[in-house]
Amino acid sequence: MSSMAQKIKSPQAPDSLSALMLAWYDNHARTLPWRLAKGARSPRPAPYHVWLSEIMLQQTTVETVIPRFQRFLRQWPTIEALALASQEAVLKEWAGLGYYARARNLHACAQRVTRQHHGVFPQEEAALKKLPGIGDYTAAAIRAIAFDRPANVVDGNVERIMARLHKETMPLPMAKKRLRDLAAAYVPDKRPGDYAQSLMDLGATVCTPQSPKCERCPLTDHCAAHADGVAADFPRRAAKNEKPTRFGHVFIIRNKEGAIFFERRPQKGLLGGMLGLPTSDWLAQKPPTRKPFKGQWQKHPQIVRHTFTHFHLELTVWQIGHEHPPLAGAFYPPSEIEALPTLFKKALWSHS
Ligand code: SF4
């Protein structure tokens, strides 16, 4: 251990660490539309808002989520209103936020809370986790932020902060349980909701993945990685497996009015329940070009590339003019393109 590391105070000082974080949060909290105004402690933010923001923020940046959150609430100001919406309308509003299973679960969760819990979210994590789309992280976040009850809210930000504070050498994802246990020791009884949000904000603005701004951090005296000048080397990560690539074809059919033919994708599977362009199966090898029907198909020279969580996709684009394609689906005006998943927007942009 370096001489500087020996000088740092033990990271195992839960009370002082949470007190430092709360003092920092009082001055540096981000202003976000799902939070209370600065300085307000009571009442808590609406559980509906906390839940909606947490679901939207999974894998999506705060900047992207802010206008979408506000638009969503204008359309469905209460959880009861969301429960009454059609799944089609919710999926359409979700377009571009990705991971459409989340939108289906969001809708199902709103219906369950409305029907089984009279529109009121339960406060216990075990009951929250029985609701569609709510896992460990979201249950803890709702309990802490909406109800100000102690909960260990651990996302990638908290893992990173804990790994640096303790200079944890075990790589992620193996270190997940260890980092979760470390984080649990710091959860305070006092203002646990603000404490959880303070870690989120520190991870987003100061203890960032690259180039952490340790000179602005309230935890420098407690941080082993900072003391040794190796903060950016943590958390350690196991070597990633390369994502495989799948291949397929996508078919653009226009009628004389310029409307575009979309089909509704099956409920189960990727982009389930969404409108989309007809495609072939997506396979590990380039599939033979089997068109959905005979005609004067034209191949577009540009390949459409898109990356999903577990694989890259490359699609060859084909187009044709047709008035009555023998497929299940319908023609939609070009204005509906906005509601399409990004993959299909890319296909249409590539050929426009
Ligand atoms: S001192 Fe630096 S590395 Fe340590 S928690 Fe703060 S920002 Fe992160």
Description:
This protein folds into two domains: 7-151 and 174-202, Endonuclease III, domain 1, CATH 1.10.340; 245-351, Nucleoside Triphosphate Pyrophosphohydrolase (Alpha-Beta Complex). Helices cover 40% and strands 11% of the residues. The protein has 14 helices and six strands. Strands 1-5-4 form a three-stranded mixed β-sheet, with helices on one face. A three-stranded antiparallel β-sheet has the order 3-2-6, with no helix packed on it. The model is unreliable at 1-9 (pLDDT under 50). Bound molecules: iron/sulfur cluster. Iron/sulfur cluster binds next to helix 10 and helix 13. The site of iron/sulfur cluster has 14 residues, from helix 10 and helix 13.
SSE blueprint and pairings:
Elements: H1 3-7, H2 14-28, H3 47-57, H4 62-75, H5 79-84, H6 87-94, H7 100-116, H8 125-128, H9 136-147, H10 156-166, H11 176-184, H12 192-205, H13 224-227, E1 245-254, E2 260-264, E3 275-276, E4 298-307, E5 312-321, E6 330-332, H14 342-351
Parallel strand pairs: 1-5
Antiparallel strand pairs: 2-3, 2-6, 4-5
Bound molecules: iron/sulfur cluster.
Q: How many distinct helices?
A: 14
The quaternary structure here is single chain
Mean pLDDT, to the nearest integer, reads 90
- What structural category arises from helix and sheet content? alpha+beta
What is the fold named in CATH at topology level of the largest domain?
Endonuclease III, domain 1
Largest sheet: 3 strands, mixed
What is the name of the CATH architecture of the largest domain?
Orthogonal Bundle
Indicate the CATH class of the largest domain: Mainly Alpha
Helix-strand pattern: HHHHHHHHHHHHHEEEEEEH
What compounds are bound to the protein? Answer: iron/sulfur cluster
User: Which shape, going by the Cα principal axes?
Assistant: globular
Radius of gyration: 24 Å
Supply the number of structural domains. 2
